[in-house]
Amino acid sequence: MQFRKITYTLVVLAIVMASTAIAHAGDACKNVKFKFTNKHSAGGPIELRQVKYFNKANGSWQTEDVKHFECKQGYTCTTTGDNLRDSEGEALTKFRLVYRYKGPKDTDNWSDDVEGGDKEPDDPTCNANKTYPGGKNTWTIFGTK
């Protein structure tokens, strides 16, 4: 009888611990913003469309669609905030901004999506309401036509 009680207790404890680990692993880093300056060589606006980020904990790149956000030439812009899945408290060590651009004329067409190069944050730990790259710094999108 004692053996069954110990076995039952261990099974329950294992289930509780596993569900806690799964819940933490799925936590989104909420309301994350990105600050960047548009110095693209096309001379017109850019539209941020996705953010790719390297999550050091799982060793893989993840992609999140962001609310499409247009930034005029020469401006420093900050996105309105998005949730990054499985990232709360994780070290996000590299980012790539995916955007499209167009020239300065109203008649210019938007480009296809362009994936920018790797950008590193000042502090990689993701927390709710964080703005990357952090501090007073900004990432710059230069690009070429």
Low-confidence stretches: 10-24
**H/E series, N to C?**
HEEEEEEEEE
Shape: elongated
Strand content: 35-45%
Account of the 3D structure:
The protein is α+β, with helices and mostly antiparallel strands. The protein has one domain. It has one helix at residues 2-25, and strands at residues 29-38, 46-55, 60-71, 76-78, 82-84, 92-101, 114-115, 131-132, 139-141. The strands form 2 sheets. Strands 1, 4, 5, 8 and 9 form a 5-stranded mixed β-sheet that branches. It has a 4-stranded antiparallel β-sheet with strand order 3-2-6-7, with no helix packed on it. A hairpin with a 4-residue loop joins strand 2 (46-55) and strand 3 (60-71). The longest helix has 24 residues, at 2-25. It is elongated and about 80 Å long.
Helix-strand blueprint:
Layout: H1 2-25, E1 29-38, E2 46-55, E3 60-71, E4 76-78, E5 82-84, E6 92-101, E7 114-115, E8 131-132, E9 139-141
Parallel strand pairs: 1-8, 1-9
Antiparallel strand pairs: 1-4, 1-5, 2-3, 2-6, 6-7
